Amino acid sequence: MAEKRGGKLNKSEALQVRFDPILRWSVEILAGRERRSLSSTIEWATERAVKEMPVVEKNGKSVSAWQIADKCWHSDPIWRLVTFAKDYSELMTFDERNRYQAILFMIGLEQKLDPSKEPHPIYLVQQEWLAPMHEVWPYIVENSGNLDMVEVRDRYLKARNSCQQNA
Fold this sequence. Notes:
The chain is mostly helical. It contains seven helices and two strands; from the N terminus they run ααββααααα. The longest helix is centred in the middle third of the chain and has 20 residues, at 94-113. The termini are far apart.
C-alpha cells in the first residue's frame, strides 16, 4: 500500500496573469534553465523580486515589499490594513485608503457611543469592535471605490446591536 504524503503547509492562491509573447517566452526559457514548471518559475521570480527590490525608504534604509508584508501581516484584514496604514500609508492604493477611512469612521462611532473606550494602542481597533466591523467589511471591500459613509454607519450600528444581543 502506498504511503500517504502530507499536504502542503503553505496556502497558495491561483492568479491569472497576462504576459506579452516575448515575456512569456523568456519565462519559459528561464523555467527550462532552472528545470521548473512555468508556474513555479513565476512564483520563484516574484518571490525574489518582492524580497530584493526596495519599494520605500524608512530611516535611511531601503525596505522591500516582503519586509513590509512580514511586518504588517495579520490574518485579520482589518488589523492588517490598520498596521499597513500606520507605517506605510504612502504605499496605500485608493481603495485601501477608503477602507482605512471606513475603519477610522467606525472607531469614531464607537468612541461617540462609549467615550470611555480608547482605541487599541497598536491596532486602534478594540477586540470587541471586530465582530460588527467584520459584518460590515464585505460591504466596505465591495464598495471601496465609492463608499457611502451613511450606509457604513447604518450597517455598523445594526451589526453592533446584533452582536450585543447575541453576546
